[in-house]
Specification:
By secondary structure, the chain is α/β, with parallel strands linked by helices. 38% of the residues lie in helices and 15% in strands. The strands form two sheets. The chain has an eight-stranded mixed β-sheet with strand order 8-7-6-5-2-1-9-10, with helices on one face. A two-stranded antiparallel ribbon has the order 3-4. Strand 7, helix 6 and strand 8 form a beta-alpha-beta unit.
Length: 300
């Protein structure tokens, strides 16, 4: 076992004991929204192209050190579109390199794919909400560009994020079968539900509307379609019995730092209506549910 692998083994062994056995959840994952600039204008998104400046290199460095001090060892970069981030000659790749120097275990990037997928990050997550008609209505007429970026094979570990809302819900099955039948080079598809960070809108699905869709996803898992959500994570999302403001995760941007997400001060009870399925995956992995633990091991 390499020194790096041994260090991870020791960290996660200790973390599992503290979090799952002693039930003292500690910070693990840190997200950085490094820019609000984006090359898409997606329905339901209000954090893109707001005019807010990018994080500076100094701010990024300070945030990474704070994350390590909290205990976080997993990092993800998002935006806006993180591949657009610049500070002088520095690009997103410099942040990936710096995070490795500081000993983060894994770095993930969440991207729309339009700038390509060439990065040394451990994994790339690409937003793709359905087949062309559905995708183009939600994100703009760029389905072909994103598909070409994914098929270019610039990164060995790519997964898709599909946000389920009132307009994309009907496309789940056809999209999964297309991914499988066309041998799209991805690990699979992680499904989120649209979360009403800015109040309910025409995209929002009530709990009763989400339930049959979660049942559909569980059926797709049984059928062997490439769903990355675990059975345990989906069942937690269905029941609603999982902690909100998840203390395992922090997120920072140019304006500050929050536990779990940047929805502080949003109208309504956003946490109660959260559809961010990564949270249930983390919760169920912390509870040592086998499907969630095995799922997490696939992309960490």
């Amino acid at each position: 076992m390499s020194a790096s692998a041994f260090r991870k083994f020791c960290f996660y062994g200790s973390y599992a004991w503290t979090s799952a056995v002693l039930r003292r959840p500690a910070p693990l994952i840190y997200g950085l929204a490094i820019t609000d600039r984006c090359s898409m204008t997606c329905a339901g998104c209000r954090v893109s192209n707001t005019g807010r400046p990018d994080m500076t290199w100094h701010q990024v460095g300070d945030a990474l050190k704070r994350a390590l001090a909290l205990g976080c060892r997993e990092l993800y970069l998002s935006g806006g579109e993180p591949t657009l981030w610049r500070d002088g000659s520095r690009t997103m790749e410099d942040i990936v390199t710096e995070s490795r120097r500081l000993s983060f275990f894994h770095v993930h990037v969440y991207t729309n794919g339009l700038q390509g997928l060439r990065t040394s990050a451990d994994m790339v997550w690409v937003g793709m909400d359905g087949l062309p008609a559905t995708f183009n209505a939600r994100r703009g007429p760029r389905f072909g560009d994103v598909e070409r970026a994914v098929r270019a094979g610039e990164h060995p570990r790519v997964a898709l994020i599909y946000t389920i809302d009132r307009h994309t819900a009907a496309g789940i099955g056809p999209f999964l079968r297309w991914v499988r039948d066309t041998s799209l080079p991805v690990m699979g598809v992680m499904f989120y539900f649209h979360t009403p960070y800015y109040g309910r809108d025409d995209l929002f699905l009530e709990a009763g509307e989400r339930a049959p869709l979660i049942g559909e996803l569980l059926g797709h898992i049984r059928a062997g379609l490439p769903v990355l959500n675990s059975r345990a994570g989906l069942k937690a999302l269905l029941s609603g019995r999982w902690p909100r403001r998840l203390p395992l995760a922090y997120v920072g941007d140019a304006d500050g730092e929050w536990v779990c997400c940047r929805a502080s001060g949003a109208p309504g009870d956003v946490c109660a209506e959260c559809g961010y399925a990564a949270c249930t995956e983390l919760t169920e992995a912390r509870r040592l549910r086998p499907s969630a633990v095995l799922g997490m091991m696939r992309y960490w």
